Amino acid sequence: MKPVLAPLALILAATAAQAQTMTERLDPDQAVLAAADCLHDWTMKPFDQLASDCVDIAFSDNLYLRELFAWVVFARVTELIPDSDGPGMNDTGQAPLWMSWATDPETFDPAPQDGKNTLAAFNFDAREPRNQMRPSTEEKDFARMTLSEEEPTHISTEDPDGANEEVNRNQIAYDYLIANGLTTKAGVATFFETHDTVEMPVGSIELKASWLQVTDGSPAPEGALTFPFQGGTYWWRGLHIMMKMRPLDHSSPYDIFYSEDPSWFWSTFEFNNNPGTQHVRDALITQRAPLDPALIERLLTDMKSEGFGFENLAPNGTQIRFTVDGRGEPVILGHTNMEDFAGKWNTAQPYNWVAFEASCHGCHATASYRPNPEFKRNPAIKNPCKDDWEKAPVFFPFSVPVGKLHPGYNMQDACSEVAYLGQGFMPLDFMWPIAFQTK
């Protein structure tokens, strides 16, 4: 196996002169050393150790180091595994590791019994890619969040344009959600009787993949990776990545809503030849620093996945906080399909966009829950939209803020009432699936 450190050192040395975003905490020589610690045995480290060893480069203000870490995580989650039950991606007999991880429908029980999750425990050891599409709610289709216990959240998982989004999580994230009962509404209510915030473990990884069905009129583009799910073949348009790097140091749970001190690392990979992708990357994304192709090839080679087609995707950028420097300009990051609702002016024509109001960190930061045990125990309250809205336990309405948040940040909910982030909402640690998927 060829070492990664030597080409990394050469790349950093060559780019240091023109890079204006070099970290204040690490000079280029120190950056090489930090990357060396991260990259030592990086292909085999457990994800919690990878996060701990790589936190300095993941949270560096050096965008090249951040992009390097984005590729490290991408290469790890796309480790190739056998597809024993099917032809695999592009008829190779293989598929990426993340396709063997738990999806939302395999984590959140759609019909809990007495408030408890009755799903069988997910078997991560099988390392077998699924052959059935298991879509999650798309953000743009998140119609409403009902508040009554008699009528669970209703959300559509069918997309008329043949596109689907799947959320996957690694075992670290899955085990925490299951152990803490955060996969049902009743479990969430019980959790917040003794906790003031969700705190996902270091090494947790949540992914969201975008797929588009292949048809005669809509074939897969050249260079795309395809997979034959039951019911049709889809091509892979990209992957959102969020990885918990360290606990957020907070004296109050509300700090999570507003702090510029990072705890999660974000990147979103997109198929390079998606219409308009390069325009969005060049003109609208705020923090992006493409790596030398030779370094990308070396990383994929170390994972034995070079030449498979993963090099036809790339990060649109990275994000670690609300703003570029912790003080001013909002960070813009998103995927032109998964966040097409944030593009202006025609959401279906990213090559014409003049603005892209998407922020992974900003959007997920508002994932929160306002508990109220008294409401839960009061059978007289049947419809919180009419009876007693202020006492209802409720998730904060989905929204897409960019830039820093403040306690007065608000959004209208399904009851046409305005919910204020600073009025009793408790953080879900950036985990929208808890709000979207619990029943």
Percent helix among the residues? Answer: 10-25%
Straight-line N-to-C gap: 48 Å
* Number of discrete domains: 2
Which shape, going by the Cα principal axes? globular
Q: Helix count?
A: 12
Structural class: alpha+beta
**What is the count of β-strands?**
16
- In round numbers, the mean pLDDT is 86
Low-pLDDT residue intervals, each spanning 5 or more residues: 14-26, 140-161
What is the helix/strand order? Answer: HHHHEEEEHHEEEHEHHEEEHEHEEEEH
Q: What can be said about the biggest beta sheet?
A: 7 strands, antiparallel
* Percent of residues in beta strands: 15-25%
Radius of gyration: 21 Å
Organism: Sagittula salina
Protein name: Cytochrome c domain-containing protein
Keywords: Signal
Topology (SSEs and partners):
Blueprint: H1 5-15, H2 28-39, H3 47-58, H4 63-77, E1 80-82, E2 94-96, E3 102-103, E4 163-169, H5 171-179, H6 185-191, E5 205-213, E6 226-229, E7 232-244, H7 255-258, E8 264-271, H8 277-283, H9 293-302, E9 313-319, E10 343-344, E11 355-356, H10 360-365, E12 368-370, H11 373-376, E13 394-395, E14 410-412, E15 418-420, E16 426-427, H12 432-437
Antiparallel strand pairs: 1-2, 3-4, 4-5, 5-7, 6-7, 7-8, 8-9, 10-11, 12-13, 12-16, 14-15
Helix pairs in contact: 1-2, 2-3
